[in-house]
């Protein structure tokens, strides 16, 4: 099978030929029909996230969907030919196991085949495409967890979404579906039309321009200054949820944070149940991911393009045809 190996930042990704995979007890081999491209991979390839990948060499790619190719002993929840997505189990936190995280602790989806524990597989509903399911595993489920579980956004709230890329657009749409009035913030005005199509009321290049009051800010950029500005913009007793990893550090005015009783928290990943809920929203048409396909043999160039910050929506590739 063809796969992209990552060993070090200096080497980057290398397209290699590997033996076909075999399923062990409790495992399932899938033909990877769709794999989403994520900024987290850029943190590993070019940034401070190299230590996240505990296995070397490793196949990156953690947004994965495909069809069951082989079933190991003791597996009863899926069968040959089933369409499945790989859940990135981050919650409950007690269930997190870095050794089983695709593209981090074990080989991921930038390959024609992948092998995973059967417990991580979620069946894809009939009205959801493989490429939609692939990006749902991280970009949409992560946004869902941030908006619904961590931010607690409900009908009637006034919400600001910072960063209108793939994650931010999903988060904005989910907040709209929750009944909130949603404002978008991004330095790239070219993202505004897509945000409005997701139901965003209005967009701005600075959170300082967003009409007050703001009950919740969800920061999908996380470049440091955005988080600090969000903490000042949110109302008394409001909440700021940080998802983006654009910068390692942010300088927060702790006096304002304390005296204004602002809640600041991070949000990571999602649960199997949240992935299932997201797939349900896609199936009934409430969520329509903005997708763009890139050739598998041009994966490195596509990741370079993602690094420029000019991609609207989510990129995906088809390793196995």
UniProtKB/TrEMBL annotation:
Signal peptide as annotated in the record: none
GO molecular function, one term: zinc ion binding
Cofactors (names): Zn(2+)
Chain ranges of the Enoyl reductase (ER) domain: 10-317
Stored Gene3D superfamilies: Medium-chain alcohol dehydrogenases, catalytic domain, NAD(P)-binding Rossmann-like Domain
UniProt-listed Enzyme Commission number(s): 1.1.1.1
One Pfam short name: ADH_N
CDD domains: hydroxyacyl_CoA_DH (cd08254)
UniProt keyword annotations, A-Z: Metal-binding, Oxidoreductase, Zinc
One cellular-component annotation, GO: cytoplasm
Acyltransferase recorded as keyword: no
The reaction(s) this protein catalyses: a secondary alcohol + NAD(+) = a ketone + NADH + H(+); a primary alcohol + NAD(+) = an aldehyde + NADH + H(+)
Family: Belongs to the zinc-containing alcohol dehydrogenase family.
Protein name, per record: alcohol dehydrogenase
């Amino acid at each position: 099978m063809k796969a992209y190996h990552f060993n070090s930042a200096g080497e980057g990704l290398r397209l290699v030929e590997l033996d076909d995979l075999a399923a062990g007890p409790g495992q399932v081999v899938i033909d990877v029909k769709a794999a989403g491209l994520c900024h987290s991979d850029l943190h590993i390839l070019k940034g401070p996230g190299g230590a996240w990948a505990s296995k070397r060499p490793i196949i990156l790619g953690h947004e994965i969907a495909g069809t069951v190719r082989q079933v190991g002993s003791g597996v009863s929840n899926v069968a040959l030919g089933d369409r499945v997505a790989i859940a990135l189990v981050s919650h409950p936190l007690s269930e997190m196991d870095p050794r089983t995280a695709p593209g981090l602790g074990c080989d991921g989806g930038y390959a024609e085949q992948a092998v995973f524990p059967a417990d991580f597989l979620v069946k894809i509903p009939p009205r959801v495409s493989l490429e939609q399911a692939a990006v749902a595993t991280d970009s949409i489920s992560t946004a869902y967890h941030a908006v619904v579980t961590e931010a607690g956004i409900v009908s009637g709230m006034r919400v600001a979404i910072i960063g209108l890329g793939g994650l931010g657009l999903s988060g904005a749409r989910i907040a709209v579906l929750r009944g909130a009035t949603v404002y978008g913030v991004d330095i790239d005005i070219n993202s505004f039309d897509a945000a409005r199509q997701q139901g965003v009321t209005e967009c701005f290049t600075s959170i300082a321009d967003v009409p007050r009051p703001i009950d919740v800010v969800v920061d999908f950029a996380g470049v440091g200054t955005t988080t600090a500005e969000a903490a000042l913009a949110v109302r008394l007793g409001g909440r700021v949820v940080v998802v983006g990893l654009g910068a390692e550090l942010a300088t927060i005015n702790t006096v304002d944070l304390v005296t204004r009783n602002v809640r600041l928290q991070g949000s990571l990943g999602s649960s199997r149940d949240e992935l299932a809920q997201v797939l349900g929203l896609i199936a009934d048409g409430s969520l329509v991911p903005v997708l763009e396909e890139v050739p598998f043999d041009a994966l490195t160039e596509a990741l370079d393009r993602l690094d420029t910050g000019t991609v609207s929506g989510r990129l995906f590739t088809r390793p196995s045809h």
